[in-house]
Amino acid sequence: MSDKPTIGFVGIGNMGWPMAASLIRAGYTVQVADRNRVQADNFVQQVGGFAADSLANLAAACDVVITMLPASAQVAEVIADGTDTLLAGLKPGSLLIDMTSGQPTITRTLAERVAAAGSMMIDAPVSGGVSRAKTAQLAIMVGGDPDGIARARPVLETIGSSILPCGAIGAGQAMKALNNLVSAGGFLIGIEALLIGQKFGLDPGLMTDVLNVSTGMNNSTQKKFRQFVLNRGFDSGFSLDLMVKDLSIAIGIGKDVGTPAPFAALCREMWASALASLGPGQDHTALAKLCEHLAGFELEAE
Fold first, then answer.
1. Which of 74, 87, 173, 211 could disulfide-link 216, Cβ–Cβ 3.0 to 4.6 Å?
2. Which of 141, 168, 195 finishes a domain?
3. Is 176 noted as a catalytic residue in this protein?
């Protein structure tokens, strides 16, 4: 009989699917749930595990429950009072790992509710995108009680290659939002540089190669410009909607702690403008289209 805990995984989306698959490959018994029941059933048929009949039954059957949802609002829904929620079935002594890129203040409130039910909650948002989720090489930023983090570590090491304790509950989500702020700024300034260079007469593909062996190198120059922008694919797997959400969280944290961040605010406004202009459902790399619109021409790689 396996000594591994039974895991419940709530949220089988672009990221949740490969993350839950990594747990199954590692030998964990996994129950999955998704708002779209067909998605959960497809996962079981294609990967394995079991589809839970309800959130309450999933919580009652599992020692560790992971939530990987679009935002804290959805996490609050599945932890709310009611007959078919995680809170309705959560066993005393269970561990709830919220891997959503959520809002720290909401997460702290939810953690108090979980604690009142006799269990523990930590937050553990991830960075690395779908590609690194598939290879179980995500960076995982963790916030919570050290005992909870220690208990979660074997599970998290199945999903990610870097487990990074950041502090008390909510600290992981704060770090994730600030990480995405830095990433978003690097993408935006890089695209503007490519546009300036192309207008001057430089090839954007060549510029990307030069940046990648120079001090201008960043994650976007390495893993996004050629792969998703210059080829006009715009299909990295991380949405523009979610990027704007994360940037809004980062700006909110800055306001909460009274730290002026004018460039961060401008960066967030640029991304929000792209969302308003392009509409929901766009990949985040489509921000380049807004920059191109402002410049009056598209990027072209020879």
1. 211
2. 168
3. yes
- Name the pTM for this structure: 0.93
pLDDT value at position 301?
Answer: 79
Residue 198, pLDDT score: 97
Closest CA to 136 of 118, 156, 120, 119: 156
pLDDT of residue 1: 46
Considering the domain architecture, whether residues 27 and 108 belong to the same structural domain is answered as: yes
CB neighbours of residue 118 within 10 Å: 11
Tell me how many degrees the CA angle 286-288-292 measures, rounded to the nearest 5: 130
Q: By residue range, what is the domain housing residue 22?
A: 7-168
Cα–Cα distance, 137 to 145 (Å, whole number): 24
CATH of the domain at 71: 3.40.50.720
Give residue 3's pLDDT: 85
What local confidence, expressed as pLDDT, does residue 2 receive? Answer: 65
> Which amino acid type is present at position 76?
A
Low-confidence ranges of the chain (pLDDT < 50): 1
Q: What is the CATH number of the domain that holds 187?
A: 1.10.1040.10
Alpha carbon distance 78, 41 (integer Å): 19
Residue 15 sits in the same domain as residue 155: yes
From 4, 91, 134, 176, active-site residue: 176
Could you tell me what percentage of the chain is helix, strand and coil, using 3-state DSSP and rounding each to the nearest 5? 55, 15, 30
DSSP, residue by residue, 145-174? -HHHHHHHHHHHHHHEEEEEEEESTTHHHH
Please name which of 91, 93, 43 lies closest in space to residue 68, comparing C-alpha atoms. 43
Is there a domain that residue 1 lies in?
no
Same domain membership, residue 159 and residue 250 = no
Q: How many CB atoms within 10 Å of residue 257? A: 8
What total of structural domains would you count in the chain? 2
CB-based contact 191:285 (threshold 8 Å): no
Is 2 within the bounds of a domain?
no
Q: Which of 120, 135, 168 is the last residue of a domain?
A: 168
